[in-house]
Design brief:
Layout (H helix, E strand, L loop, with lengths): L1 E3 L5 H5 L37 E2 L3 E4 L2 E4 L20 E3 L11 H14 L24 E3 L9 E7 L4 E12 L11 H8 L6 E7 L2 E5 L7 E3 L3 E4 L13 E14 L3 E11 L8 E10 L1
Parallel strand pairs: 6-8, 7-15
Antiparallel strand pairs: 1-8, 2-3, 3-4, 5-13, 8-13, 9-10, 9-14, 11-13, 12-13, 14-15
Length: 289
Amino acid sequence: MRLWLGLATLGRQTLRGGGSQPAKKTRNTQRKGKQSMNKNIRIRASVPRRCGLGWQVFKCGGHVLPVVAALAMLAVAGSNPLSAANTVSPPGFKVSVPLNAAELSARWWQWNLETPNGINPTLDFTGVNCGKEQEFPPLFFLAGAPVDTPVTRSCTVPAGKTLFFPMITVECSNLEEPPFFGSKASELRNCVKPWLNNVTLSLKIDGVTVASSANLAKFRAMSPLYAFTLPQDNQLGKPGGTSGISVSDGFWIAVKLTKGNHVLQFKARVNSGPAAGFEQDILYYLTQQ
């Protein structure tokens, strides 16, 4: 199991001890175009590459659906108001065609697990690797870190991209040891359920609080069963090319920023349960092209 953006590699590195050493290998070429194990985990193959996110709408295959803006961006007296064009959406609602947020969270975890340690943005404490393996055209994934101390990154986001990231997330797979192991979907869902039931969360954009624990329950989403194939140098410490199945749970955010410089900060703390006391503070200095 892994917890990121709140519980970074707590499953293997913190709870069990040890860690992975970065290497300079590139992603296993099996990843591109690989076939999923069944219709429930055909996450990658189901996304047409022509899809793209527009101004508060997602356009794909001729269809245009509104992105649900869950939180109004309010001006704060005595500070610069956050532009009303910045949009925060709860992925608990449908934010894309054909994938909803739960399915997008599976895509995020595939990206995380299939990116080699040496270039993995979750293991990068400066932002130098923030653009690595960003192969999902509509979105730009942000990441957490395997530490419970503050992390600051600088990153440039390409034009037209919408940010997608977990405030906090956990996964279990069939490649890990109990209590993080499940051999099928039902076992994996039960595995992730107890970890994130009592968390404190906050999200700030340009110094303005736009999401907090009081209104983040609607942002929670459990993924469908998904497949992944590990690169040579991977977070699970398995041989390169090993394939597995997994389910994740988490609080997911989609953010559409206006062009220019922004400061995005999210915090998470686990108040009870197996990982009680763990907290994370991630700060991004972002340039939206």
